[in-house]
Amino acid sequence: MNARAARTAVATGTSRLLTRPMLLLLVASVGGMGGFYLLLSVLPLYAATAGGGGVGAGLTTGAMMLATVLAEPAVPWFLARFGHRAVVGAGLLLLGLPSAVLSLWSSFPLTLGVCLARGVGLGIVVVAGTALAAELAPPGRRSENLGLYGVSLGVPSVLGLPAGVWLSDRLGFEPVFLLTAALTLLALPAVAGLPARRATRATHAERLSGDPDGRNGELGGRGEDPGARKGPPDGPLGAAVNRSLVRPTLILGAATFASGVLVTFLPLALLGGPSHLAVVALLVQASVAPLARWGAGWWGDRHGSSSLLLPAVLAVALGTAGLVRLESPVMVIVSMVLFGAGFGAVQNVTLATMFERVPRSGFGRVSVVWNLAFDAGMGLGAVGFGLLIDRTGYPWSFAVTAVLLLAVLVPAWHDRRYVQAEAA
Fold this sequence. Notes:
The protein has helices spanning 3-11, 20-40, 42-71, 75-101, 108-135, 142-171, 173-191, 204-208, 246-269, 277-303, 309-321, 329-356, 363-392, 394-407, 409-423. It is mainly α.
């Protein structure tokens, strides 16, 4: 049986995705990401209306992503030292509680400080959650399980992104800050049911059997996962030095660069346009992305993820290019559909591909590398676009971003050829 046939046979089995630990992980992720997305587009508006302008708006997202990128490499060490419960709990508190401070005092330096604290919390939650979702996957259904986890990250954006903008417009900023703190606190009880230590830590029996990564058990004793490849050395930067991860990392970073641009500046770009267009546009994009991420996972377990990479990158580029026509509400909505579909697929395809190219012992490090690319891209997009729009305006800045994304089709094409060569 070839690798694709083996993958299909296992993927159509009866292994359950929604185990109790997975359900609790989803609950914790929904609460944490709800707090993240509720303020993601609000804080740039808050900073801009306080006199920061486009540069100030970009710095709020940039500061948060900088803190996230700096925090993420340390998360595997904290997980090994303190376990998932304590670490994820701390991440939820950092995502939510600092925002309540802004309801009491208002200043741009304080806003940046809150963004830095929230960035650390975000880094903790996403790295720990991504690695745990991969570890909890049943045999042969890792891509689909990652897609399900992606939905738990995406669903809060469906409500949080547009709701934050809508509520701040109707009620002011302070109630949104307090609601963010409340959401994360409500998710804390779910943390108590997460595994105390990393799920991929080898058991005594596995070490005696010569299976330290637990791979022989992934398929019920039938050998290795058909999609798994030998990974990098088991060092602190093992995943980072795996050359097969470079292209997926670059592709993801480019897609999140565009995402950082959209969530930070689309509400500002549409100010003065049709009423509620920004809210509807963010809602459409946020609704399509998690569905595409889950659908890409379903497809990847049955047909291989690599076939989706090129069309996903192209959809992201076309969706960004369509925003050149900001005066057309129809074009804005169509662009958000394209962008959401491509962005959701890119997230799942790159993540599943990277997990396939390392052993289970490397899952934590892959989670770090993937999330670093995600958050660095988003932060660079927000800051870079903020500097660009003061010189070119919004339409030309969106056009430049689309051209950068089209250039990423080259590494996407090369990565697909790499996968085909490996399978031959």
